[in-house]
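Input record, target 12 of the design panel.
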């Protein structure tokens, strides 16, 4: 089986107060593979959105789903390398 690296956009909607702890755990897992990060301001209800472009594959997606529990996460493939 050939392992393909993909550029993924991870879009997370997290409670503002928990954003720091989730991002610190996330950074320890994906540091070195991050291409771009966008932080959007919190909404009136206190939900922050973070968009991260990262190089990875299916294992990375499985790992991130177990890591992020309190929030919504979506993935989109931007390109295949």
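The sequence produced for target 12 reads:
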């Amino acid at each position: 089986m050939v392992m393909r690296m993909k550029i993924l956009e991870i879009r997370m909607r997290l409670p503002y107060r928990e954003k720091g702890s989730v991002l610190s755990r996330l950074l320890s897992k994906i540091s070195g593979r991050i291409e771009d990060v966008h932080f959007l301001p919190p909404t009136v209800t206190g939900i922050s959105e973070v968009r991260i472009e990262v190089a990875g594959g299916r294992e990375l997606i499985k790992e991130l789903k177990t890591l992020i529990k309190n929030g919504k996460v979506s993935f989109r493939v931007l390109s295949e390398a």
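The first strand starts at residue 6 and ends at 15.
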